[in-house]
Amino acid sequence: MGIFNQKSKLKPAPQDIRIEKVVVQSKPRPSLTPNGPRASSSSKYSASPRLSPNPRLSRPKSASPYPSSSDEKRGALARKRKAVTSTPRDSPAFGNDSDSSDEDSDPFRKRLRRSEERSADLNRKLRHKKAFGSEIRDSRIIHAADVASVATGCPIIQGTKPEEVAIELQYPSRCKREKYELVWQKDKIDAVKDILSVVEHVAETYLTDDEAKPFIDHNGSFKRQMERAISEKYRDVPVFRTALQSYNDKLLELVENGTVEKNIQKLHHLPPSLVSFILTQVYDRTVAPKVEMLTKYEAGSDNVYGELLHPFITKMLVEQTKMTSDQVFIDLGSGVGNVVLQAALEIGCRSYGCEIMENACNLAEAQEKEFRARCLLWGVAHGRVHLERGDFRASAKIMEKIKEADVILVNNKAFTSTLNDALINMFLDLKKGCKIISLKSFVHENKTAVNDVANSILDVEHYRYHENWVSWAAAEGDYYISTKK
């Protein structure tokens, strides 16, 4: 962000305000389950390659100037979004050909053990109005094959004949299928893993138990057939393609006879695992191929970059601030738009963002376009999204909407004190009860006029975020939720 050269002169508030600190040290709660035809369960294929934290695996170095308990000793390193996953991306995600009946591998048994449910937002309508018409629509997505293909230099998966490389995948809508190629290259879209994840998410979110059995039942389902066919033991690509075609045909039948649309109408929110997966699909097709653009910022300025990852945002927006679809979310310094899009999809609220860095803005616009196309492909409606370019202190749109905001995010970990002070002046216009999420507290022990103002208008709660919840560090860290008095 630009430098704020002139502070507002404000009189200190006469009263002393106590700051309450609540330290949360428990491990994250299990993922939330949807109030729909079927509850979601975890799966080895459902997590994003970028967002499935596993501290046992090595973490790519990060050059984000954001300090952490581990990184500030090493200094700034080359920034790259984390690729921590249960399946390292230095090998293909081939299926397990084991016939074990372990209940941990059975999504139906795992689902029965899940007890927590998210309160339904009955005003949230998830069916996309344009996704289930009589005509097949072109969602205008960036296909996986546009990013990972023979044409982009990726080698064909071993055992695949040239005429077997091109495949297509049906989604739960009346949209054209996504094009994939059976290729594999490190740090590219993993076609097999992506396809298996889609199959599981479709079955668990869009179908009832009985409807889902042909898709993900442990014995003989489409997913199981594909896993076995592509495993290193069998490596039978024709069988994989046949199972995929059977999946495509069956899902299209359920779309055309109205089953999928009927089930979506019963949903009032998506499971966090599917939210994360859709957003990761968007990121992998827009930001990931150009991620090095985000390293170009001025050291020591407010214009630095770091990402809060999906589980962290779900924790704050769903569990802590309990946002609903009729509310307004604003991200001040929204980067490539990750959180703005997540709020729009996971909450269904009106979601605004403002970013000043040109490269980040360009990638944010690419993400927003792909996000809209992907939501149509998945048949789900999202909240209104609006991304602004420029300094949020000078944006007429942001200054207008900040008065309506219910939750504001400010990733101010690396902001200068000047910019943080300017934000306090902006917060004077917030409505009572508005929540401000930040990585630095706006209330501190220093005796300054601006801090006295912050102390007089904000009640602050202190929390700890968990390992692998931010892009610049694997360690835990602090964050704050302030409430406007």
Question: Could you give the topology of this structure?
Answer:
Elements: H1 107-112, H2 144-147, E1 166-169, E2 178-181, H3 191-206, H4 209-216, H5 222-230, H6 237-256, H7 259-265, H8 272-286, H9 310-320, E3 328-332, H10 338-347, E4 350-355, H11 358-378, E5 385-389, H12 396-401, E6 407-410, H13 417-427, E7 435-438, H14 449-457, E8 458-465, E9 477-484
Parallel strand pairs: 3-4, 3-6, 4-5, 6-7
Antiparallel strand pairs: 1-2, 7-9, 8-9
Describe this structure in words.
Helices cover 32% and strands 10% of the residues. The protein has helices spanning 107-112, 144-147, 191-206, 209-216, 222-230, 237-256, 259-265, 272-286, 310-320, 338-347, 358-378, 396-401, 417-427, 449-457, and strands at 166-169, 178-181, 328-332, 350-355, 385-389, 407-410, 435-438, 458-465, 477-484. Strand 4 (350-355), helix 11 and strand 5 (385-389) form a beta-alpha-beta unit. Helix 3 (191-206) runs antiparallel to helix 5 and helix 8 packs antiparallel against helix 10 (338-347). Residues 1-90, 95-104 and 106-116 have low confidence and may be disordered.
Domains (count) = 2
Topology as H/E string?
HHEEHHHHHHHEHEHEHEHEHEE
Strand order of the largest sheet: 5-4-3-6-7-9-8
Radius of gyration: 23 Å
Q: What is the number of helical segments per DSSP (H or I, 4+ residues)?
A: 14
- Kindly report how far apart the N and C termini lie: 27 Å
CATH 4th-level superfamily of the largest domain: Vaccinia Virus protein VP39
CATH topology of the largest domain: Rossmann fold
- How would you sum up the global shape? elongated
